[in-house]
Amino acid sequence: MTQIDIVDEGVSLDSPVLVEGFPGVGLVGKMAVDHLIATFEMDHYANVYCDTIPPVATYQEDSRELVTPVRLYVDAERDLLAIQSDVPIGPEAATEFGNCVAGWFAEADVLPVYISGLPRQTDDVPSLYGVATDDAAGDRLTDAGVDQPAEMGLISGPTGALLAHATEHDNTAVGLVVESNPQLPDPIASQVVIEGGIEPIAGISVPTEDLSARAEEIEQARQQLIQRMQQATEDSSRAQPLRMYQ
Question: Where does this protein have coiled-coil stretches (predicted)?
Answer without folding.
Answer: 208-235
